[in-house]
Amino acid sequence: MIIRKIAIVFVFFNFMTITYSQKYNAIDSIVLKYPNFGNTEKLAERIQKDFTTEYDKARAIYSWVALNINYDVKKFRNPSNPKTFNSKDKSEVDRQMKNYRDNEIKKAFRNKKGVCEDFSLLYEQIGTLSGLKVKVVIGDAKVDLTDIGRKRLYSNHAWNTVEIDGKSILIDATWGGGYLDYKTETAVKKFTPIYFDVEPKYFYAKHFPESEFKNPKMDKEAYLNGPLIYDAMIEKDCEVFLPKSGIVKVNEGDKILFKIKNLSEFNELSCFDNDDEKLEMFILKEENNVLEFEILCKKKMTQFITFYRNQKALASFKIITK
């Protein structure tokens, strides 16, 4: 949860693991052998000793946080009351907030668990101690089928940006550490490298910064109405060209045209609705690495459909049949 003057609920996203490059293997292998450190200062010293470039340091911190911090399901399910700071002196309020944040970071580091705020604050502190320019970003995250076409934005997640050689890269160490199994209400530890230095087109399909809520430079409607994409979609660099929205309105019996990049293995594709009924797919053509296919809408109802490749979810859409 994020500690602010108002109560904010946090979410944790369910996602899959992927393979990663040899360079990241080398960095992760070093970090995996790290002993327990007494504080973040000692960890930062070790990272600066083992890695020289800003990018490798940023990656090492991501690996350490994702590999070592567990998601705190109890804290997520039972968030504490929001912390308030009262003083006419703004500097005193800032001091109290800093002390509280520092204590929360120490607690997460010591207990090796936390929620998204703890992951992002911990990343920020270790990064700053390592000489990096790191920011914590608060905003909205799309995590569920019902988020497709949602009417409003929420401050329900936290992540980081890091400035590397004058360019800001996007990092979500919480999602890099595993996922929450809602059936068993347990956190599953599974290192997921794709949430380090994510391409903006994918990252912002799943994240919307709070700073953009009121005067957005980003397209809020496109974000809220876009399809829900999953890790396999990012891993394979798949991009949806059609439909233009994640909400598709059609007549019963119509076919919906889809165009998705990098889906050449169409024999490995499948599509199911939210009743687990398999839908028939009609492959039209593949051209310039873009697969065109259609789905027949038989039901007169609102439903969600999800595409899978080798049983891994790619993307979900909300279908409204008249």
Automatic annotation (TrEMBL):
InterPro entries membership: CAP/Cytokinesis_protein, Papain-like_cys_pep_sf, Transglutaminase-like
A Pfam family per the record: Transglut_core
Which intervals hold domain Transglutaminase-like?
42-166
Q: Which Gene3D superfamilies match?
A: 3.10.620.30
Please name the PANTHER family in this protein's record.
CYTOKINESIS PROTEIN 3 (PTHR46333)
Q: What is the name of this protein? A: Transglutaminase-like domain-containing protein
| Species name | Flavobacterium chungbukense
Q: What lineage, starting at the top, does this entry show? A: Bacteria, Pseudomonadati, Bacteroidota, Flavobacteriia, Flavobacteriales
